[in-house]
Structure formats: C-alpha cells, structure tokens
Amino acid sequence: MYSEKVMDHFKNPRNVGEVKDYHGKGEMGSTRCGDTMVLTIKVGEGEVIEDVKFQTFGCAAAIASSSMMTEMVLGKTIQEALAMTNNHVAEALGGLPAPKMHCSNLAADALHKAIEDYLKRKEAAAS
Amino acid sequence: MYSEKVMDHFKNPRNVGEVKDYHGKGEMGSTRCGDTMVLTIKVGEGEVIEDVKFQTFGCAAAIASSSMMTEMVLGKTIQEALAMTNNHVAEALGGLPAPKMHCSNLAADALHKAIEDYLKRKEAAAS
Amino acid sequence: MRKVYMDNGATTQVDEQVLEAMLPFYRELFGNPSSLHSFGREVKKALEEAREKAALAINARPEEIYFTSGGTEADNLAVQGVARALKKKGNHIITSAVEHHAVLDVCKAMEEEGFKVTFLPVDEYGMVSPEAFREAVTEETILASIMLANNEVGTLQPIEEISAITREKGIVLHTDAVQAIGNIPVDVGQLGVDLLSLAAHKFNGPKGVGALYVRRGTQVNKVTYGGGQEKKVRPGTENIPGIVGLGKAIELATADVPGKAAHLTFLRDKLIQGLMKIGDVKLNGHPEKRLPGNANLSFAFVEGESLLLSLDMKGVAASSGSACTSGSLEPSHVLLAMGMPHETAHGSLRFSLGKYNTEEDVDYVLEVLPEIVERLRSMSPVARRGKQG
Amino acid sequence: MRKVYMDNGATTQVDEQVLEAMLPFYRELFGNPSSLHSFGREVKKALEEAREKAALAINARPEEIYFTSGGTEADNLAVQGVARALKKKGNHIITSAVEHHAVLDVCKAMEEEGFKVTFLPVDEYGMVSPEAFREAVTEETILASIMLANNEVGTLQPIEEISAITREKGIVLHTDAVQAIGNIPVDVGQLGVDLLSLAAHKFNGPKGVGALYVRRGTQVNKVTYGGGQEKKVRPGTENIPGIVGLGKAIELATADVPGKAAHLTFLRDKLIQGLMKIGDVKLNGHPEKRLPGNANLSFAFVEGESLLLSLDMKGVAASSGSACTSGSLEPSHVLLAMGMPHETAHGSLRFSLGKYNTEEDVDYVLEVLPEIVERLRSMSPVARRGKQG
Ligand SMILES: Cc1ncc(COP(=O)(O)O)c(C=O)c1O
Ligand SMILES: Cc1ncc(COP(=O)(O)O)c(C=O)c1O
Q1: Distance of residue D333 Cα from the nearest chain A Cα, in angstroms
Q2: C303 vs B11: CB contact, 8 Å cut-off?
Q3: CATH second-level architecture of A4-119?
Q4: Mean per-residue pLDDT for A90-98?
Q5: Where is the domain boundary, C201, C227, C253?
C-alpha cells in the first residue's frame, strides 16, 4: 500500500520532538480523521529554517508526511518554505494512496502556521 | 438419482417388443414430455394375462416403469391388472424422483387401455 | 471401464498447473486482502496480478475487471446493474431467446420491475439477426445482452455487427462469453462490448469464481451490498484461491486459442461425421459458426436421457436438451427457439469437447453410440412408425 | 522474524484436513452436480453430504441450507430476499447500528426501495436492548436482522430474548452468525431464528463460500436469477470444492466448541490483562458477553493504523477500527455507535484469536506492543497534553 519511502519515514521519523526555544509553532488538526500535528521551528540568519521538529498523532501517512516535510524544509528560507505544498510532500514520499492524500495535508499546513507564528512574534518584538 | 431397481429395468428391460397375435393393444402418449408407449397383451384362460410386451419412447423412468409394469402384470387376471395404478409401479421400482413421477404414468394407463381394447374385441367377437 | 468426459460445456477439469497456483493461497498465504498487515498485503498483490491476467486475456484494463462467484453472478450484475443504473434514460432491454437462464431469467425478472424486454428470435441455426436487432431498437433501449457463444448448440452470435448498432445508438451492450473464453478469440475492443461475463470453471479453472468486464465509464448498480471489495461493486471477502486460479486458467486457456481450436475442431468434425452415419441424425446449430468443441446432434425416435444414461453406462459423459434431463417438463428453450419440434428436441445430445479429449475418446464414442441408438430405437414405438412412414 | 497471526476475525487459515477433503474435487471429482452422468452424480453426493454437515452443525435440516459465495451474499439474500417476499405484509425492518456492512448497507438500500428501517442503538458495550427492540416493533414490521456476535468488539447479542419477541409478533428474524460459528454454540432451534448466515473462511474453511439457513416455510425472494441450483433460490454452478470444504470445516469447528472456547478465553484474558498494564488502555465491548477470541482495546493518544503497522513490522497481524484502516474517513461505525469519542476509536486495536494461536503468541505480543505504544506516544502531541491535563 505504502511506498518504501513512506515506510522508511514511518519507521525512522526524522526530527521528532519540540525545538528548544522555538521561534514559531504551528498546530494543525484534521477534523475529518482526527490526526493532529504540532510543529516547531527555529529561524536563523537570512530567514533560513535552522531547526524543525514535529509531533504527530496520526496514521503512517501522517507521520511520514510530517517527517518528510521536516527534512525538506530544513535549511530552506521561510519564503521557500511557504511555497511548499502538501502535494510536494506527497510527491517526495513517492506518492500516497488516494484515500490517504488528506493525511499529508497536515504537514505543509502546520509548517505554514509555524511560519506565520514566527512572523507574528517577530512583528510583535519589533513593534 | 434413480434407484438400483430403475437402473436394472432400464439396462435390462423385460418384455420388450410386440406380442404376436395380441388380444389387446394400448397406446399412450404424454403430451407433456413427449414420451410414448405401446403395450400389447395376450389373455388366456380365466382372463389371465399370459403374455405382455411393450415399446417405449422415453426416458429411463418411462422405460423402467414400462418394464416393471409388464413384470407385475404377467400372470395376473385382468381384474387384478385393472386395479394396478401408476403409483404401484413407481413403488415397485423403489420410488422415482419427484419430477419423474409423471414418466411412470404411461405404464398403467397403457395397460388399462390394452385391457379395454381386449374387452372391446371380445365383445365385438361375441356379438 | 474407459471413462470419456465430453461434457466440457457443463464444466471442465481443473488444470493441474492451475491447482498448483492456487494451493499456496489455501496454505501459508491465507490472509484477507483488505488487511493492512503482511498477511493481507501479500495476498492483495496476488489478487491484483490475477486481475491483470484476466484483463490481458480479453484486452481490457485491470480496473475494468470485477471478480464474481461465477458466470451467473456476472450475468446478473451486468443486466440488473446496468438496467437499474440507466432506468432514468429508458426502460427497454433487448436480449435473445437462446440466452442462458442466467441472462434470460434476469431479463424476465426485470420485466417485473417495469422494464420492457424484447426476446429476439433466432434462425434455425440459433443465430440472432443484426437486422432484427436494429429493428427492435427503440428510443427507450438502454441495454442489450446477447451471448457470444451458445452453451447448447455452440452457435456464435454476430456480436461485432450488433455492437456497431449499439455504439451508433448509444446502447450498453453486454455479452455472455462464458462458453467462449479459450475456445475462440475474445477481445473486448474488437467485439465492441461494454460488459462481458466469464466463468473460470468453463476453461479448466475452479468452480465458484467468475468475472465481469465493465468498460470504463459504464454505470453498474450494485446487486449486493457490503464491504469495500471490488470497488464496492461486488462486496464480500474475495475468494483468493479461486481468483488466483481464474488468473492462471485464463492465462493458460488464451495462450494458444488457434491451437486449441484446431485440436477441438478436428475431434469434433470426426465425431460429427462418424455419428451422422448412424442415420436419422441431424446436426443442431450452425454448421460453421459454432464453438470448435461443440457437437450437438438429434437422434430421431429416441429420447435424450435414455441416450445419456446408456452412454454413461459405457463411461461416456455427455448432456442433453431433453425435458427429462432439464428437471422441467419442457425440452431445451434453445432447441425450441430454433424451431425444432418437441420430439427432435427430446432426442438431442450434446458432446462438448475439451483440451483433454483425444482421438481415442472420439473413436470410443463412435464405437459405443451406434449400438445404443439401435437398442433404444428397437424399443421405441415411434421408431417403428417412423420407419413405416 | 516470528509471525503471529491474531486477525482471525478477518479470515482464518484453512485447516489442512479441510484442504485434504477439498482436493479430490479439484482433481478427479470435477463434474458438475447437475449432470446426470457418473461425473455429476458422484459430485452431487458430496454436495448433499456437505449440506448435511452444515445442517447438523447448527441443528437445522439439510433442505434448510442454501450455499452461497460467502457471508455477504448470505446476508444480502436474507435481508433483500425476505423484505421483498413480505413487501405486501408490511414495510418495516429492524436492525442494529452495529451490524456488519453486509447487513447495514443492504438495509440502507432497502430504504431506497421504500422500506422503513429502524437502526437500533446499542449501549456502551455494543449491546442491543430487547426492550428497545420490542418498542421498535410496529404493525408494519416484517423482518429483523440482529447479529449473533459482533465482528469488531465481539459483543454477543441477546438473540434468544429477541426471538421471543419476533415469534410472538410474527416477525421473521435473521441473524448474522458469521463470527459465531465454532466460537460459541449455535443452534437455530434454541436461538429461535428463521435465517442465519455463515461464512466458511471464518472457521478455518475456504474463502468464497458461505451458507444461509432458511427455516422451512420462510419465504425468500431470489436476488440473482438463473439455473435450478439450490432450489433456484441461489443459481449458478455450485462451488463444489468450496462447499465440501465448508462441510468439513464446520464439522471440525463445531466438534468441540467448549474446548476451543476455553483455549481462546484463556489466551484472550492473558492478552487483555497484559495489555491493560500499559496504561491508558481501555477494553472495548462487553467484559463477559463477548466472543472468546476477541480482544478489542483502545490505546489513548495513538492512532490505530500506526499501531497496526508497527505491530506488522514485528510480525504481528491485528486490525483496527481507525478511519485510516477502514479506507473511509470515519472510524468504525461500531465504536461510534457505542458512544466512543473519535480519538479513542482511532486508537482501537482488535486482536482476534484463532485455534492456531498459542500462549507464546500472546507472550510475544505482550513483549513487543508496550514499546510500540510508548514510541508512538512519545511522538504524539496529544499524549503530551493528555499527560499534562
Ligand atoms: C452461456 C452460459 N452463461 C452462464 C452460465 C452460468 O455460469 P455458472 O454456472 O458458472 O454460474 C453458463 C454455465 O452454466 C453458461 O454456459
Ligand atoms: C459479522 C460479519 N458478517 C458478514 C461478513 C461478510 O462475510 P464475507 O466477507 O465472507 O462475505 C463478515 C466478514 O467479513 C462478518 O464479520
């Protein structure tokens, strides 16, 4: 059912946990299937994402999407990260079964929320 | 499907053919399944059936019923023969499958016709 | 006693290679393909491989194959499913008078649901006329079901000519190919059909499994409801060993259709020619457009069941269209639709040859049957009259 | 890697004795039971022997057994068949919210045909209340379908109490006993049911074959149409190897139900007790009135599919009611009907034990599952909050 890449990320998820002293935090819940994800990021010089960690309650597709997303986003600028979509994550995983596509939605959405949070905090600090 | 007795009479039908110089002849056709039977008898002293022969176009049940009937009737008086029913024949065969019961109807009916024919001829000869 | 099986139209012997392919799925590969775990996944793979084989054999796409419990269920799903799905478009169905009961009786049931059904007559060879088909079409016609090859007399129907009409008129066309697979080439593209039924046990596969081909985009309502199997069109835990067997059997059966057909045609023609010598014997069905393995003959003055049972006593298995073998009181609806008188229909005998038949089998039948016919005719009052007349 | 199969509710491994009984019918005994010749007759005999075995196992008469292609078809034939046959008497059907989709979805389809259906709610243990059943009965009630044992949580329904009501009111009662056969005693007389479904692959028989018991005198309309098999109620060439397998399997499965149940109960209770130690674990279904082999548990803060796949990586096969394993977006309708919140339903895991399971299997699961739960909880944002709250 799942690609090897999905199973690899499910078995050995990258970047699990919470970034210490994070700069932004995004939380997403799927009302449809009950999955939940919390993402924390640290943004360094040049608006580059220096650290990223996730916690996910969900199926293998949700966990693998979370893990894959963190790998993809690490070292990217927040501009680049904002351009990332759920489809990019699913593609990078070698595709997901059709009924599982929605499970990958959490990942990019939580990322965007974390960046938003980061930008808000920055604004608040600046003002 | 068929009892051993039916198969025995089908394999080795008794009294097939036509009695030479018969005294009575009965012919029956089933309009329902197309079976046809011709029975000839010779009646001796004391109105006893001395000889009987049949010809049948029909299934195994029809042929076995014909054969069984000739065996049952041989040596009987025509009174006794007239009391014989299709059910008696079927019973003597150890029963017939339900959808095959109608195939045994020919036998007793042809017998009764043959006896009728004999009685008519006798009357005609007497008058 | 020598045993000769010439009733391959009723069912066939499972090919040992087919059974070999099935056995692991009764033993270690016993999972349910809906299960996520390894026991399920390995079996799911086999299910999809069988679907690919079935698709390949009839030139369809794997996703167009729906596995069923046999030919009857496939026919029911096709006719009930399409008729109900298209109810709003029209209420007229066209079929033929010589269909198998699995189509004929469904069509009759559809009449009770409010559909109008035309049962097309056939000619003396059992063939439907494309012109008559065209004339039967109305504005209301939504579905037609015409078989590819007749199970009793072996006549092949002009499906390509009929599909030219259904395509022109936008009518969904189903064909019952249960008797055709492995015996004649079957290509859904060339035939131009939208649905096609098949049953594994007619081509040396297992009993209890069949398939319905449904062309992409064709609407089919469910007949049974339940789990999500077969895209919810045909729910129920899949008969995995059976489906794997179907896959293997159809692969083997369609590997060399011309070769098999040539073998069967040779045997069949030898059989027919030999039997015709008995006298007062008539070949039923079309002289050329017939299944390569089908020899259906009428023996005047004798009844089919008596022939059958007498052959059986000699070890030969055949079948008959006589009323007495059908369990009903009427002889075969196919023979009657061909205009055959009742008596002749009663004396019909079908030999259906299969891949395991040999020339020795044919010789044996030619050796024993003449005596049997003679014996039965000697008992028959009809024969006497026949000869006198 | 050690392989532990604990998904016997999904399907079971065919008993080698069952397969042995089937094999001759794939080989030399390949005839069609409708055929008059010896190839047909010897197979017909086996068909009727299997029917006798199935009847004996549930205390029915052989002529009350109709073979089908599985549990789904049996359920469909029962509900569709009886509802349509009794349409003139009334239009109300009673069923429960926790039925298998093979009953639930048929009942929904019946609604579209104009029937009114009451889907009885269940209590937190998944049990239907006989009082609620009685209250649901109307003048129009013709049919009720309440399962004997639930496939997900194993809860046993009070069928005898319900049949007391249906008999009093003249309502036809069907029960889906697919999960019950071989695990609890099943006696149609004692249960007081009029129809009962079963499927061979749930009691170490083959897939693709089941049966419907129909009490003498109960009217059932056909769902599919065709030949004269199974008294025309269920047409199609019989799946003889499958039916023979069903016969052998039900004979073996019902030979010692108390013995099997004791074995399963022992293993199940050890498993449940061991798993409860993990913490934040809840047993779903009735604590006592449940299938001896069913252990359905909810693991808070983790999702079922993740549990399943993690177990699978350790060689353990189980199943889950989580949305992500059902192929739909909703978690199990059974768990929801029991009033379980979505999150808890998502984290449910079903272990269904079978006759081949051993104590070592249970020990192995108790060894690997705690680590898996811990690992997944450590990844879960919900768990953290849960612990905090
Ligand atoms: C032409 C045709 N259609 C349908 C069927 C029904 O197939 P099954 O008996 O496998 O359900 C048969 C065989 O009996 C057949 O010959
Ligand atoms: C309670 C119940 N009913 C019906 C079915 C359907 O049986 P089958 O999948 O064999 O058609 C199942 C099994 O899936 C079941 O557990």
Answers
A1: 13
A2: no
A3: Alpha-Beta Complex (3.90)
A4: 91
A5: C253
